[in-house]
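Please review the protein record below. Tell me whether the encoded fold seems credible here:
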Amino acid sequence: MPMESPILLKVDVGEAVRSLIEGNSPGVDNFSSELIKHGGKATTSAITVL
């Protein structure tokens, strides 16, 4: 039986993005927190879909 993924809401993703600390090194995906925070609605929407 396949596991179901939790449903992410844009508001939840937006809160998580706003809580990111700036100035940290990028992770293995090479995306900095600044890039994600300042990406705007398009970035938040894309992350929500992922």
Residues 10 and 46 are 10 Å apart (CA to CA). DSSP finds three helices and no strands in the chain. The helical segments are 10-18, 33-37, 40-49.
